[in-house]
Amino acid sequence: MFGALIGDLVGSVYEWNNYKAKDFQPLIHPRAFLTDDTVLTVAVADAFLNGRGLVDSFKDWGGRYPDSDWGGRFSRWLFSEDSEPYGSFGNGAAMRVSPVAMLSDDLDEILELARLSAAVTHDHPEGIKGAQATAMAIHYARLGYASDDIRSLVADFSGYDMDRSVDEIRPGYRFDVTCQGSVPEALICALEATSFEDALRNAISIGGDSDTLAAIAGPVAEARFGIPQAIGLEAWARVPMDMRSVIERLYESAGGELNAN
Predict the structure, then answer these.
(1) Cα–Cα dist 186/179, whole Å
(2) Rounded distance, CA 121 to CA 219, Å?
(3) What's 132's domain CATH number?
(4) Is residue 193 part of a domain?
(5) With bands split at pLDDT 50, 70 and 90, how would you rate the model's confidence at 74?
(6) How many domains does the chain have?
(7) Which of its termini does the chain have fewer beta carbons within 10 Å around, N or C?
(8) In degrees, to the nearest 5, what angle opens at C-alpha 1 toward C-alphas 176 and 198?
C-alpha cells in the first residue's frame, strides 16, 4: 500500500506535464503532493480495517481532503448526497485497491474485496476487473512469483495484453483514465522493473495519467522489491498524521514492513 502512496507522490507533478523518459530528477519532486489516489487508498484501508461502509469512508476522507485533484465524475458523487455507483470503468478503481491485497492470503477473498472496493462507485465490469487484476498482481508478487508468471496469470484472468514491453508502450501511449487503457500498462511497468525505483520511473516515462499509473505500479513493485529506506523516509515525511495511523495499522495487521522509520 505504501508503494501506491509513493507512486502517487512521484507522479503528481507529471500528470499534466508528462515526461516521457526515465531520467527525471529527483525521484520525489519538491512540489510533489498526495492526490485523490492516496486519499482513497487510505479510505479503502480504513473501511476494511474498521468495518466501515466504503461510501461512508470515501465521503469522510474526501471531506477531510477536498482539494485533492479529484476526477470530475467522482467529485460530483463525492460531494453530493448520492451514494449509488455510477457505472464507471475509470482507473480510480485500481489505484485505490492495494490495501485489499494485504488483508488476506486467499486469492478468492482478495478478488472479492477488490470487487467490493471498486463496485461502490466503479461498478462497470471493466472497473471491477481493473481493481481485481491489480490486487491479483500484488498478491502473486507478495508470494514471490516470477514476473513472467504474474504477467501470464493476470493476462489469463483479465484478457489484458501483458506481452508488451515498456519501450514498446511508450512511443504511442496517450492519456487514458480507463482501467482497460492504463491498468495493463501500469502493471507491465512494475513487472518489467529491476527495482522499486525503476518501476516508478517506468510508469512516469510512458506518459499519460502519471500519478495513477505510478500508484498502480507502486504496490506491485513494493511487493516484488520492498521500498528502499531513503525513499520511504522521504515519502513518509509528507504523509499527514491521520493517514499515518491507518497505514501503520494495516501493516501491523498484515505483518508487513512499512520501512518509513
Answers:
(1) 10
(2) 22
(3) 1.10.4080.10
(4) yes
(5) very high
(6) 1
(7) C
(8) 65
What is d(CA 88, CA 132) in angstroms, rounded to the nearest whole number? 15
Asked whether the whole model's pTM tops 0.90, one would answer: yes
**Which cell numbers in the block locate residue 173?**
501511449
What are φ and ψ of residue 258, in 5° steps? -75, -35
Asked if the structure places residue 43 within a domain, the reply is: yes
**How distant, in Å, are the alpha carbons of 1, 47, 70, 115, 236 from that of 74?**
21, 18, 7, 17, 27
Domain assignment present for 109 = yes
Whether 32 contacts 239, CB under 8 Å: no
Q: How far is CA 72 from the centre of its chain?
A: 19
5-47 per-position pLDDT tens digit: 999 999 999 999 999 999 999 999 999 999 999 999 999 999 9
pLDDT reported for residue 259: 72
Arithmetic mean of pLDDT over the chain = 96
CA separation (Å) from 227 to 2, 187, 234? 9, 17, 11
Confidence of residue 71 (pLDDT cuts 50, 70, 90): confident
Q: Which domain holds residue 227?
A: 2-254
Q: With cut-offs at 50, 70 and 90, classify the pLDDT of residue 258.
A: confident
Q: Is residue 168 part of a domain?
A: yes
